[in-house]
Amino acid sequence: MAHAYTPGLKVTEQATVRKMRRLPILGEVLVAEGKEVTPEMVVARAQLPGNPHTVNVANSLSVEPEDVPHFMVRKVGDKVGKGEVIATYRAFFGLMKNNVTSPVEGVIENISAVTGQVVVREPAIPVQVDAYIKGKITQVMPREGVIVETRGAFIQGIFGVGGERQGRLKMLAKNPDNILDEKDITPEGKDQIVIGGSLVTGRAIKKAMEYGVKGIVAGGIIDKDLVEILGYDIGVAITGHEDIPLTIVITEGFGKIRMAEKTFHLLKELSGQTASINGATQIRAGVMRPEIIVAGYVPKTVAAETKISEGLIPGTPIRIIREPFFGELAEVVDLPPELQTIETEAHVRILKARLTDGREVTIPRANVEILEE
Amino acid sequence: MKNGSYDLPPEINSILATDCGSTTTKAILIEKVNGEYRLIVRGEAPTTVEAPFEDVTMGARNAIREVEELTGRHLLSEEGVITPRQADGSGVDIYLSTSSAGGGLQMMVAGVVKNMTAESAQRAALGAGAIVMDVISVDDGRRPHEKIQRIRHLRPDMILLSGGIDGGTITHVVEIAELIAAAEPKPRLGIGFKLPIIYAGNKDARQHIEKTLGDKLDLRIVDNLRPVLEREVLGPAREEIHNLFMEHVMAQAPGYNKLMKWTPIPIMPTPGAVGLIMQATAKKYDISVVGVDIGGATTDVFSVVGEVFNRTVSANLGMSYSISNVLLEAGTANIRRWIPFNIDEADLRNRIRNKMIRPTTIPQTLDELVIEQALSREALRLAFEHHKTLAVGLKGVQKQRTIGDAFDQSSSGESLINLMDLGMLIGSGGVLSHAPRRVQSALMMLDAFLPEGVTTLTVDSIFMMPQLGVLSTVHETAAVEVFEKDCLIWLGTAIAPVGVGREGDDCVTIRGVLPDGTSLSETIKFGAMKHIPLRETDLVELEIHPARGFDVGAGKGHVLKTQVKGGVAGIIIDARGRQPFVLPEDGLQRRKKLLEWFTALEVYPSELLARYAR
Questions:
Q1: ω before B52 within 30° of 0 (cis)?
Q2: Residue B25 β-bridge partners
């Protein structure tokens, strides 16, 4: 039970960020170790075998499958164009003629005498992987991909939607309580990643899409707004492939929740810088959280490296992440070692915390996360 | 004792077993004490398959180290677990392990006819412990190019292909093989490796299958799983799945090569092992068993009816990672129907989403606990519905019926699950195993599964079914003894008359003599629930008199004399009706009824329930 609390998300102005950029199948790596790369630079590519199409020649010619090879006018390995005849049946000295054509441009891959099916494969589809962040190649995995490394600011959100994008960060909130509404979104937001406080409204997201905003970062989002924007309800917590024109990174959770002070101030500091963001979230083994990376950012004041959290001790600033004090900030007052009985009658490890309004409350340790200083 | 071909000591007195789950690795130590096998201690530690550790043995070592600390025994050496037990007392006689880390075993299955060979292939894969990502068949309604696209996008650990009876037509199964060959699917793990495919179809097509798939995939051929229409032979396919799981999936997973050297017994997929212990239990008591394991991401349902074992996995029904999907599939109305207070829909949705993104949090207030248990009822209900669609008799078969037919098999393809004949329900997974009051687990299972007649209710105390399952392959006695004495918690017995009546009319009368000599005679009205305390160690003979039109297992209105076992929740009489079980439509009425039942069974603290009544 050494870690009976949620360790919290990384929010740091200086971190070494490593990103694996991997091809879906074996291919070719285009950069060497040590190479400096920019986000849009292609670092690896592969040729994904083209889409195969099946043509049932036996049915089309009304012949037995075992006779199909005999009626083929194109053989395995032949290139064919769309609409080109690949099999012909002639009877009565050519008076009766029946042709089968290729549905696509491609190569004949297989002629089956068992099923009478012919497979025509379309030309290979090139796939490429870009560097995503500005940095340096520190490792090449031959034929598979590379690792890009950079130093810079690194902020993790709790939940996101939408994939990898780049844009200039723009702080639109005056304080972490502010709600990002449609009136805040202007045409100036085009290609930017805009930042709000405690909530981004559904109307603001729609407006942002209209104006070509690249990304939105906010403390909270209303579940129903998210469903409306996506056009469907998210079932399982795997995101990042949504077909939407921008990426959304939520830092605190669902509902209106004040953005953590540290996150807000760092984002304010980073306003104007170019960032790489990704909404991809996966909550299970191999946890993946959405992220905002500003490569090469050098803090104005040279702060010490982020303190490695020693866990919960009296004085640790925390956020409560479950009802009845969901979203509230507090400070640990006491950590009784014995299990205690809470309202549900469960026996759990608890802590006593002081809320910002001065009230002292008891919270299960599992329901808090540390706000890293 | 069977020990197959494994190199095991002649006498086994100490057993160490681990289950490497996706988040936690659990170790248990079993020893023979006064002639019987008992659980001594357990230890657990976070699983270390993912970065930055990427070595499963680290988590296993940590969990075993906890066992060492608790017992003061020396179990580990540089090489792994010390076996057999040494003269100085160190080590254990055998070590074994199961695993579901790294996403478990993910398979795609294919067959010719959706309801016949494809369904048999699906049962083979599920029974072996796999998650079935998709089922492809000639008649699945998708056009060839759509099937090819789907196969291309899946990245399974392996494929199971079946189709045709031996000696039947080969065209269709070869057609499916051609689609697979065209799609050139790639494995989930090990970029550059050939994807394994097991062929378990018409033996006459083997040569063509070899020609079509041999170059592109890693082809294995086993006996046809449907050699004739009337018979399903799943054993050889399941065995090959386990072999490939060891050779391919485990060998690719970080650290497993080391772990495999620690034990002579193959590492088994966790759900496959759970299935084995369920089967051993059903065999021992000669009853039908339904078991459920509700996790954060998935819910597995197992059933053993006669000789037939089935398992299904609802990959997207769970209490944390997949909790939003429970909301999506069940709908808010179905979740709210189990909540005895009014809650705004938007509030409920936000709470569920927040549980999804912060899955390790726990309910602090009664409201939160009630909501979580409402979600669990719906997840269990949906998973059981799913199970019933697959736990069916063979389709496409003319069945001969006899008067002695125990199950509803009036025509082929009908459900094997007859709730009236169900002997035991076994619940497992955090929300059931760790409910603050055991009666909460009993009621969640009653509401979700709606058992009929007389059914024993149990929960797995600390989730050691996987370790006991794999142990049952080498030492069934030890596995079953520990399962009964240390693993299962006997909640009690539910008595649920089937039928519908008018609220307040008599539904059932229970008569008997309690262990303390007092006589019991209780009449329960329709629409009510009643709790009769009876200790776990007690067995009582009961006469159950259903009112006219109600059935408790002996026919409508007929008395049933039976022996029932007690438990931490005693005897629960559920006179809320079955076929159908209906909750009041009106919100106020429904909440009133829920409170009445919660109070009758003492499900939640009464002083807290009182605030909902206001």
A1: yes
A2: B20, B45
According to the model, what pLDDT value does residue A4 have?
Answer: 35
Residues whose CB falls within 8 Å of the CB of residue B266, separated by 6 or more in sequence, listed in order = B242, B243, B246
Instruction: Classify A243 as helix, strand or coil.
Output: coil
CB-based contact B344:A322 (threshold 8 Å): no
Burial class (CB in 10 A: 0-12, 13-18, 19+), B79: exposed
Segment A173-190, tens digit of pLDDT: 999 999 999 999 999 999
Residues in A closer than 8 angstroms to B327, CB to CB, are 233
Residue among A65, A158, A222 minimizing CB distance to B357: A158
Which residues of chain B have a CB within 8 Å of the CB of A112? 174, 178, 212
pLDDT for position A372: 63
Longest dimension (CA), chain A: 100
Cα nearest neighbour of A235 on chain B: B325
Burial of A243 (0-12, 13-18, 19+ CB in 10 A): exposed
Segment A160-166 mean pLDDT: 96
The mean pLDDT of chain B is 90
Cβ–Cβ contact B144 with A under 8 A? yes
Q: Cβ of B354 and A255 within 8 Å? A: yes
pLDDT above 50 (res B538)? yes
Task: Kindly list the domain boundaries of chain A, sorted by start residue.
Answer: 11-17+158-295, 52-121, 317-370
Domains and CATH numbers, chain B: 14-101 (3.30.420.40), 104-257 (3.40.50.2300), 288-399+406-613 (no CATH)
User: In which band, very low, low, confident or very high, does the pLDDT at B297 lie, cut at 50, 70 and 90?
Assistant: confident
Class of domain A52-121: mainly beta
Highest mean pLDDT range out of A143-147, B139-143, B592-596?
B592-596
For tokens 């043995």, the residue is B57
| Contact status of B184 with chain A (Cβ, < 8 Å) | yes
Q: Can A11-17+158-295 and A52-121 be said to share one CATH topology?
A: no
* Mean pLDDT score, A350-371: 92
Phi first, then psi: what are they for B54, rounded to 5°? 50, 45
Query: Cβ of B329 under 8 Å from any chain A Cβ?
Result: yes
CATH architecture of A317-370: Roll (2.30)
- Residue B367 at interface with chain A, using a CB cutoff of 8 Å: yes
Interface check B60 vs A, CB under 8 A? no
For residues A112-131, give the mean pLDDT.
93
- Tokens representing B294? 């509700």
A283 to chain B, any CB pair closer than 8 A? The answer is yes
The CATH number of the domain covering residues in A11-17+158-295: 3.50.30
